Amino acid sequence: MGGLSLPLTLAACIPGTSQPPTAPPPPPPPSQTVRQPLAEKITALPSPLPAWEARRVSPDARSVAATTYTVAPGDTLRGIAAKTGAGSEAIARANGIAPPFTILTGQRLTIPGGRYHLVRDGQTGIAIARAYGVDWGRIVTANMLEEPYILRTGQRVLIPGEATPRSAAERAQAFTLDIDDIITGGEPALAANTAPTRPTSSSKRVLPSTAAVAEPARLRGGFQWPVEGRIVRRFGPGASGERNDGIKIAVPLKTPILATADGVVAYVGSDIPALGGLVILRHGDGLTSVYGHAGGLLVQRGQSVKRGQRIALSGDSGAANRPELHFELRQGRTPVDPLTRLPARN
Asked: Which residues, in sequence order, are CB contacts of 130 under 8 Å at separation 6+?
């Protein structure tokens, strides 16, 4: 993520001047690629592209017809998946095979039909969903994915829906990004027999966007208020029927936003336009906190933070019409009212 864009030179803004335009600088090498500038109301530390931008996905799913397969000597579910093109998890579900996924020679297995995408190194659920123009939540449901939702290189993921030919632009337009997508589909796939990367202790050490980051195993301590201010919108449905998955707190511009608990930064950016500058933290035990409408972003993805640490500055970015903080707490994929978890105010 870059900061604000530099203004054009005066000569470039005045018609009829003879000064030749300045040639743009060459692009940085791929290993040093940084985010495009954020919206003018948001400043941030330079950082890599998000994983779903850094590692694009081609929609090359294999269509598999429903059939049966007789287990041969030496077969494994993973090997049968490779032979048939179906996902090993889908085969296990279709045949009621539970861990440790034992199969017997001569056993007849049902091979469920559908479109299966082979996950490559570093691919994310978001990039896969966008490539096919399918909501990531539908893919999560179709594959019964569970916490922590990190895909595995070589995994075959069922893509729901019909294989209707569409242009890349049409597929991209059909996909919209939301908080749930980032929480469940933002981490890059892990290679076999590898563990997630340990978080960094400082924003000065930036992890590559294609590295899956380990999250805390459990929540340490309770939650604290991220800012002091007046609640201007509460959790739940509004007067016109729209739903607010958090609370909105009015604060002066550039008020420090504090981590509500110890955690690891799962996302920093502005890829959800309505929320503007956005930070998402993972706290362990399936708990996540969300901080939106920020004007300054002070942390990096993969950075460990302590309760009360500054992670952003308040702003009026996104759809905010005044300086305020949009604050959410989520248990797994479910938003919960922050007021039920935060300390009572006097």
From this structure: 52, 57, 171, 172, 175
